[in-house]
Design brief:
The chain has 29 helices and 14 strands. It has 663 residues and is of the alpha+beta class. Helix 26 links the parallel strand 6 and strand 7.
Length: 663
């Protein structure tokens, strides 16, 4: 006979409880996170640099898929500036770009300062070797998004762990999250959901110390959310979670005794006050830079008006499969690129009618209003009104929607859809309301299928040849099938279908890439590091957008690079009257164009390329470069000036660079 009373029996029972409990899924996710970190595998498109240097030669660090050039904000900005931070030993103000840049604003990079505690995804850089930390950060963002969904669902429905896991993974693999895979996107969603989860657990806590603990977590998460510092996504995600929070608090008024309710609300208010104080301290220590950012020509103060959004795009998420393939993606011409054209699989809009049915049935049977579900449904409809109805500026000012470009509001609508599905399932779990008849569910599913077909045909008519016949038919099936399974209370299966379809639409977006040595262990980088070690006080000027960050990325001071905000004192040395202020007063990629006519002397001038790029035309041995100690010039074409000494020529199969020293 088996003895269940001994150590082995107790271990077996504990193992069984663990497998059946809520911590199995987070444990499996953690193993994946740590495994990818140990192997130094990330999803960066930094392999674009290898293509620039080596052309079509195989990249030894590319394990799967291909890098995406369109994700330049990642591989050409955030990743390279993260490397630059490591080269400078993680200062808050990096001295190697221009006259020094405060990277705690705008940038998502690690730095050493008290506020870094509220950007926990970057803390690994302070304790791990760089490539391990980079891989950990890359996957941690997705890990936290999945877990925020998972625990939000379980906080409302403790028994639905597989539904929670499937829904969290489906949100992670949604086209919008993958094409916009960066901190400002994912963290805006996961901090909003973590805050909602902390609020739920705080309000339900009975012990004072536990309540205070949840209040402290709420204050921390709210501070983290505020310091994301990208209002378009933050406002959109806040508007998605706020109606749930308000509805939940109204709901608790009925569920909690008066004294306990007052105590819990007092802790919530205290959490808001602590978060407000921390945010205020952060802002107060950076006011000069914040004022500079607010008064730029680009991005400047954007004011968005309601209406005029492309209806064809709103419900196009199920057609996102083709965005993974450049030739097809070019046929979809709503926005400028795949990231801008990405969307969510919006399920909840097709559940609003059943939600209204459940709300009415609940009120008639029990005289109860499901406030969270009601307010989330109203907010979703209100968001659609804002997108399509003009002249709603007052509403925009009240809700800060005038700060959110319509394409960015999609993140809020996607999050609203997720929250709405969760609340719909929570209400459908109420056995007292009964299960809709099978015939009624089938009939409604057919209506959803028809609506989906009409929406898909609209996409096909607007963008001929974007959808192939087979892809068009397959794209019709998943959302109606998810709706059918949810209405039949097959919640885990519904989440599984949503997950499989989401993976199919995003599987080829990101590469799997090992390390970042293509930026730091390449001949050009090694040459810059060697020269910087000899002459650490010199600055560099670079004549190439492709390698604009290479000097300060490898520890040298540089006038070229990506400026998170304008350094007006630097640029006005060549424009003391501010006549070209509109050109350089912006977030911008900056590089040089050197005059190659020895017979002429050209004045230093600025030229705007695109909204986030300007070039500086100047003499290679002129006053502007000398004034800023630019003793090294990096060019892609030779220079012939008597004041220059060719220090080194760096040759690659697909590119050649010259490094000159100014005598």
């Amino acid at each position: 006979m088996n003895d269940d009373t001994g150590p082995r029996g107790r271990t077996t029972r504990a193992g069984g409880r663990f497998v059946r409990g809520i911590w199995l899924f987070p444990a499996l996710l953690t193993v994946v996170l740590l495994g990818l970190t140990a192997l130094q595998i990330n999803g960066s498109s930094v392999g674009m640099v290898h293509t620039m240097f080596y052309g079509t030669q195989p990249d030894p660090d590319l394990l799967f898929n291909n890098p995406q050039g369109i994700r330049a904000d990642e591989w050409n900005v955030n990743t390279q500036i993260t490397v630059a931070q490591e080269a400078a030993n993680y200062p808050r103000i990096n001295p190697n770009v221009g006259q020094g840049e405060d990277i705690s604003l705008i940038r998502d990079v690690p730095y050493k300062e008290w506020s870094a505690v509220f950007k926990p995804h970057n803390l690994a850089f302070l304790v791990l070797p760089f490539d391990f930390a980079f891989a950990f950060k890359w996957w941690l963002m997705g890990y936290l998004l999945i877990l925020s969904c998972y625990f939000f669902v379980l906080a409302l429905m403790p028994g639905q762990r597989w539904f929670a896991a499937g829904l969290g993974l489906a949100l992670f693999f949604s086209p919008f999250a993958q094409w916009w895979y960066q901190y400002v996107t994912l963290s805006s969603m996961y901090y909003a959901l973590f805050a909602a989860t902390a609020l739920i657990l705080l309000m339900r806590s009975k012990r004072l110390l536990t309540t205070i603990g949840w209040g402290a977590l709420l204050a921390y998460v709210l501070t983290c959310f505020a310091l994301v510092l990208y209002p378009p996504f933050q406002v959109a995600c806040a508007l998605a979670v706020a109606p749930f929070a308000v509805g939940f608090l109204i709901e608790q008024r009925r569920a909690l005794p008066g004294r306990l309710l007052l105590r819990q609300l007092s802790v919530v208010v205290a959490s808001l006050a602590v978060a407000g104080a921390l945010i205020g301290a952060f802002v107060a220590t950076r006011m000069t830079v914040i004022e500079t950012i607010q008064n730029t020509a680009y991005p400047g103060k954007r004011v968005v008006e309601s209406g005029n959004f492309a209806f064809v795009h709103l419900f196009s998420g199920h057609t996102s499969l083709n965005l993974q393939f450049s030739a097809k993606a070019e046929l979809y011409k709503v926005m400028s690129n795949q990231s801008e054209n990405s969307n969510f699989l919006l399920v909840f809009p097709f559940l609003v009618v059943p939600s209204v049915f459940l709300l009415i049935k609940l009120y008639r049977a029990q005289r109860i209003i499901d406030w969270p579900l009601l307010l989330v449904s109203i907010t979703l409809l209100g968001s659609l009104v804002w997108l399509f109805v003009p002249n709603l500026e007052l509403l925009g000012k009240i809700l800060f929607l005038n700060l959110v470009p319509h394409a960015r509001l999609l993140i809020g609508i996607g999050l609203l859809s997720f929250v709405g599905v969760v609340l719909f399932v929570r209400r459908l779990l109420d056995e007292r309301l009964g299960l809709p008849s099978r015939k009624l569910v089938i009939a409604y599913t057919l209506v959803v299928l028809l609506a989906q077909a009409l929406l898909t045909l609209q996409v096909e008519r607007a963008f001929p040849d974007y959808m192939q016949d087979r892809g068009l038919v397959l794209s019709l099936i998943p959302i109606p099938l998810v709706v059918f399974l949810l209405l039949r209370r097959r919640f885990a299966w519904g989440a599984a279908v949503l997950l499989v379809f989401s993976v199919a639409m995003t599987a080829f977006i990101h590469p799997l890439y090992r390390g970042t040595e293509v930026l730091t262990r390449t001949p050009l980088a090694e040459s810059i590091r060697a020269i910087e070690a000899e002459d650490p006080d010199a600055s560099w000027a670079i004549e190439s957008g492709g390698v604009q960050n290479f000097a300060y990325m490898n520890g040298a001071r540089s006038l070229s690079g990506v400026y998170g905000y304008p350094q007006l004192d630097l640029w006005r040395t060549a424009d003391p009257q501010g006549e070209q202020d509109f050109i350089y007063n912006r977030y911008a990629h900056v590089w040089f164009v050197f005059d190659r006519d020895p017979a002429k002397t050209v004045p230093t001038k600025y030229a705007l390329g695109t909204s986030d790029h300007f070039e500086i035309t100047t003499e290679p041995c002129g006053d502007f470069l000398r004034q800023h100690q630019a003793r090294y010039l990096l060019t892609v074409e030779p220079l012939n000036e008597p004041c220059l000494e060719l220090r080194e020529t760096v040759r690659y199969p697909a590119a050649t660079f010259q490094i000159y020293k100014v005598r």
